[in-house]
């Protein structure tokens, strides 16, 4: 079971284009218990919590919003029993500074958790939720935020719930639970160690030119994972070594939605006494699909353009690397110095490429599914009109 989290130490980080969820700091004893507990393999969310999240996300459309998930970890099943929203960027006065905004976010979270504690409601942080559109949540801000959660709470102890209000309006409840995969965490670790090694090589190279001798910093096991992944550069070599694709960034967890006994009894009774005006009919089919299709195609074009930009950047990197190889051979350099010269050519971050490829693939799948559904609806409506 998760223990009660302290809200005394709260960090709140803000990044561009999206509200970043604040993460709490925890003691060593709590973190050790979380790491030794069995990994979460399933998410169980209360229907009332899901409705609160849906209401928050739907009210703020088209603004993307975030919120905190609270609950318990019960032997591999993460039970989400409560949630509360975070203030969106539009709720702040534009004149206040970023520091003041961060302070207000900290105070808001502490006050909310304190109120929940006073009324004896679960206040254990188990993750966060976010609204999205056409899988736009797959970006650097989301990944950095989820990494911070997993690093704080334990690698497999918290989740990221994603809700798409536009797809839900079309009759398909779109809510999914994710966490960063082990492959991705390993890629971050390898990249961080490589960057640390390159920094040490640069320091050693500079000291050698200055005829100085100093101890080179060596990382301990606990320091092999960075506190943040904002400056991590995942290279093509790391992707090839780990066989990491765009589908391997997140692991999706199954979600079970449950109701209390009284709610379940009400739903069964309501189903038996269903009013006639709620019965399905051909006239209730949503045939207005032009707007959704247009937005989907615009997203596809945008993702394709971004992918083209990433490919162009990688081509420029390959040209610079070839030039550096030629310069290293011409100059009288040692093998170690040549290796440093090649590694000093910065490779474009392949994480950007993975995210764009994932967004493009998901958008294609959604458009294919949407088109198939629209064709089926048209055929059903046509048959219904002929019978009438």
Automatic annotation (TrEMBL):
Native organism taxonomy: Eukaryota, Discoba, Heterolobosea, Tetramitia, Eutetramitia
GO cellular component, one term: eukaryotic translation initiation factor 3 complex
An example Gene Ontology molecular-function term: translation initiation factor activity
The keyword Secreted is annotated on this UniProt entry: no
Domain MPN per the UniProt entry, residue ranges: 43-184
Keywords assigned by UniProt, alphabetized: Cytoplasm, Initiation factor, Protein biosynthesis
Protein name in UniProt: Predicted protein
UniProt signal peptide: none
Pfam families in the record: eIF3h_C, JAB
């Amino acid at each position: 079971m998760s223990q009660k989290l302290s809200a005394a130490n709260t960090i709140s980080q803000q990044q561009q284009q999206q509200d970043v969820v604040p993460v709490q700091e925890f003691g060593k004893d709590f973190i050790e218990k979380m790491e030794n507990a069995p990994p979460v393999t399933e998410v169980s969310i209360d229907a009332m919590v899901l409705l609160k999240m849906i209401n928050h996300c739907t009210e703020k459309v088209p603004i993307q919003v975030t919120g905190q998930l609270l609950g318990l970890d019960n032997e591999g099943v993460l039970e989400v029993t409560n949630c509360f929203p975070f203030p969106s960027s539009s709720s702040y006065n534009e004149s206040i500074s970023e520091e003041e905004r961060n302070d207000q976010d900290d105070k808001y979270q502490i006050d909310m958790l304190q109120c929940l504690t006073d009324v004896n409601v679960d206040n254990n942080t188990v993750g966060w939720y976010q609204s999205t559109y056409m899988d736009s949540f797959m970006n650097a801000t989301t990944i950095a935020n989820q990494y911070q959660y997993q690093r704080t709470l334990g690698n497999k102890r918290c989740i990221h719930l994603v809700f798409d209000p536009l797809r839900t309006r079309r009759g398909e409840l779109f809510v999914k639970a994710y966490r960063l995969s082990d492959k991705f965490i390993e890629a971050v670790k390898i990249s961080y160690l490589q960057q640390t090694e390159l920094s040490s090589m640069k320091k050693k190279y500079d000291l050698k030119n200055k005829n100085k001798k100093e101890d080179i910093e060596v990382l301990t096991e606990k320091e092999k994972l960075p506190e943040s992944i904002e400056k991590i550069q995942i290279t093509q070599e790391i992707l090839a070594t780990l066989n990491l694709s765009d589908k391997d960034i997140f692991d999706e967890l199954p979600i079970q939605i449950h109701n209390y006994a009284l709610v379940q009894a009400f739903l069964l009774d309501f189903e038996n006494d269903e009013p006639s005006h709620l019965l399905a009919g051909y006239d209730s089919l949503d045939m207005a699909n032009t707007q959704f299709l247009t937005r989907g195609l615009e997203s596809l074009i945008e993702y394709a353009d971004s992918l083209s930009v990433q490919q162009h950047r990688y081509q420029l990197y390959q040209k610079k690397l070839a030039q550096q190889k030629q310069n290293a051979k011409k100059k009288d350099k040692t093998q170690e110095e040549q290796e440093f010269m090649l590694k000093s050519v910065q490779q474009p971050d392949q994480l950007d490429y993975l995210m764009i490829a994932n967004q493009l693939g998901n958008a294609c799948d959604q458009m294919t599914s949407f088109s198939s559904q629209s064709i089926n609806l048209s055929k059903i409506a046509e048959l219904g009109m002929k019978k009438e």
